[in-house]
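Researcher: Quick sanity check before group meeting.
Model: Go ahead. Protein one:
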Amino acid sequence: MLEPNWKGVPHELQNLRQWVLWKNVIRSGKETKIPWSVWDQPASSTDPKTWSDWENVVIQFDERRHAGVGYVFSKTDGMIGIDLDSCRCKATGVIAPWAQKWIDKYQTYTEISPSETGVKLWLKSDRLFAKGTNIKIPERRMNPDKDPGVEMYSDGRYFAVTGHALRGF
């Protein structure tokens, strides 16, 4: 997993009280990222009472207990998250052409995912998705464990944040 780069996270996101920690757990034989609160209990991507401010999650982060920090998308934050899966070669840093088109089109804060095999974009928008969108796309895999795909969320989900920016807001 990619170590967090606290200084790379834009202040515009840091100023929002929508932060959680996260842990890796094994569910049904698969590694899963679960949100965790600064009060050392599970957090919920739909319950703002379990979220915290940026400073507290950074202070509470402990690499022996947490895998990283996460940003929770909310109906009121004016943000959409786009997760481009299996689009980056971990060894070389090369981004697949289909994903580079998304990055170039939106020109917004974009960072490398914790696995280093995907990228995540934050867009300023008031658009809401009923359940989010998850689309698998017919492109070459850059990660043997995951098919290329695009996920989009406006609320009720969180992104694990690395701060390893490819592009700022």
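Researcher: Fine. The other one?
Model: Protein two, sequence then structure:
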Amino acid sequence: MIFTDNTCGTHKAKDPAVVYLHGRYYMYYSRFAENGSLRLGIAVSCDGDEWRIHGELPLTQDCEKNGIGAPGAVVLNGKVHLFYQTYGNGARDAICHAVSGNGIDFIKDEANPVFAPRAGSWSCGRAIDADVCVFGDKLYLYYATRDPRMKIQMVGCAAAPLGSAYTRGDFTEAFDGAILKPELPWEGECIEAPAAIARGGRVYMFYGGSYNCAPQQIGCAVSDDGVHFTRVSLMPFLPNGAPGEWNASESGHPYVFEDIDGEVYLYYQGSADNGRSWYLSRKKISLPI
């Protein structure tokens, strides 16, 4: 699978999130407006491999005026819950929530944005790159934030009771600090884009290590409680490609998806030209059941 979006004249698609609903696959991703700001694109597929661009989530709320993107998604009780970030607001970027019964038309939470961590000793208060995972009786929200100096990017965690409205006030911080932060040489000053899946009573989290095209590569960590994570390897789970390959500059911003037949796929973004163009792809992976 190779997918991109050239609607605005450049080949750029980033930050994939995939769900299956009513016999079709829906992919939500970051696309770019002509002025360079971020938008949230929607593509549709019959097989999860060949995609047709449908359109984008319109900007309708004041918090979205500078752009939106980097979605995470989950199907709960037959509806798609979409979590996405505001864009272009620096330390004030936060996570929004919208719901759809058909994968295309979304009703946005009137309280948007619904979550950002408290600004304090470990975080500047920013929340981007949302992903959600059902584990136990909670919906865990994983997100990227930065330290108070806006230099180090890292992953935080919040949680809401299953069956709640997933609106402002339902999510509370599950841990007062980063649950993953850059520590390995290849992770540089950044861990972002958490992508979580519950399998075999544990949560597996894939993440992008290092900033875009540094190169960013994908790592993996595992948790028994959804909050405290341990890396499964000191090396990247999915490295960037060799010179000349489509992902030579980066394999990054993952999303993990379990298909209806139980197969697990890692969707991710790649670039060969230091971010002048971006493409999406997927690989089948194996995880314990």
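Researcher: One line on it for the slide.
Model: The radius of gyration is 17 Å.
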